[in-house]
Design goal:
By secondary structure, the protein is α/β, with parallel strands linked by helices. It contains ten helices and 14 strands. The strands form three sheets. Strands 7-8-9-10-11-12-13-14 form an eight-stranded parallel β-barrel, surrounded by five helices. It has a four-stranded antiparallel sheet with strand order 2-3-1-4. Helix 5 packs across helix 6.
């Protein structure tokens, strides 16, 4: 349920209503706009008298929200959310994030070289896998804690904030200096992990599961936000369909649909979505045209020798070409 307050309501009047809602066992989410303030009520609202609240002098309207996701709902938060990852790097509502780097961290020279190259091309964040969930137990599983240490060295060398994936809540102490914690597609519904991340103050990049609906993605975001952490970025990375020519099927319709449903920033990962390096550029440009707040692109200094996902990785030179075209699309949309 949301209660829209009239303009001109005093702080004392608003706080009095908030206190009353809380006395009914409800949590209150406050969203302040230029003209109105919206109070989002979370909890059992079945006993709340809608007509009584609407009759109050300070209340303009009351609406019940049918969707099960509340904090992630645009009706609770009409304004697009802007997440400040660092002082200089933001995402959302016109602040575009270009996330680039290798699928996995392989050694110090590799990650620092790639970090320097993608930064020159305009990347604003460095991605790199330290813990790697692989379909086969015999594939490279990542450098784990050492991989995070190497990412931090690359951050020190370039100034780029780092994005890396977490596999288990027990690993959280290793992520103290990580700027953005990624929840991979396989862990999108690892609810205990999501609850643990909800208790942190880290920005969370939540990837859509390969067979999950947008509603399920938003409900997973709700798990994190319900814990108190509202800095969530949604990522469309392709879903599994009957198509076999590409690794997954990139659902670009998810971008405008999510834009209607939520205020959270939306990123698209064309690398995992297609699994083919030559398809990354057209899908990246299409994602920007569809309104994405950012892109996550895999870049490796020597893709044929990559220990993980070389087939979908761009070279630094190819990434530079994509970055130039992305900026052109952004200019065309203004």
């Amino acid at each position: 349920m949301i209660a829209v307050l009239k303009s001109g309501v005093t702080k004392e009047q608003r706080q009095g209503l908030i206190d009353w809602f809380k006395s009914q066992g409800l949590d209150v989410h406050i969203s302040e706009g230029e003209m109105h303030t919206i109070l989002g009520l979370v909890g059992d609202t079945t006993k709340v008298d809608e007509e009584l609240i609407e009759a109050l002098d300070i209340v303009e309207s009351v609406k019940r929200i049918s969707e099960p996701f509340k904090k992630a709902n645009r009706k609770f938060n009409p304004k697009n959310k802007v997440i400040e990852i660092t002082k200089d790097v933001k995402i959302g509502d016109g602040e575009f994030a270009l996330i680039a780097g290798p699928c996995s961290v392989e050694n110090e020279a590799q990650i620092i070289e790639v970090a320097k190259e993608v930064k020159k091309s305009g990347a604003t964040l460095l991605r790199g896998g330290a813990f790697k969930p692989r379909t086969s137990p015999y594939d490279f599983q990542g450098m784990k804690a050492e991989g995070i240490e190497l990412l931090l060295k690359a951050k020190e060398a370039t100034g780029l904030p780092i994005v890396t994936e977490i596999m288990n809540e027990k690993h959280l102490p290793l992520f103290e200096e990580v700027d953005v914690i990624q929840v991979g597609a396989r862990n999108m519904q690892n609810f205990e992990l999501l609850k643990a991340l909800g208790k942190t103050n880290k920005t969370i990049l939540l990837k859509r599961g390969l067979a999950n609906t947008l509603k399920e993605l938003l409900m997973s975001a709700e798990y994190i936000m319900a814990g108190g952490n509202e800095n969530v970025i949604l990522c469309e990375r392709g879903i599994r369909t009957f198509e076999s020519y590409t690794r997954n099927t990139l659902d670009l319709s998810a971008v405008p649909m999510l834009r209607e449903l939520t205020h959270l920033p939306i990123v698209v990962d064309p690398s995992h979505a297609t699994g083919i390096a030559r398809l990354v550029e057209p899908m990246a440009l299409a994602a920007v045209a569809a309104g994405a707040d950012g892109l996550m692109i895999e870049v490796h200094n020597d893709p044929p020798k990559a220990l993980c996902d070389g087939a979908q990785s761009l070279t630094p030179a190819q990434f530079d070409e994509v970055a130039v075209k992305v900026r052109k699309i952004q200019e065309a949309l203004k």
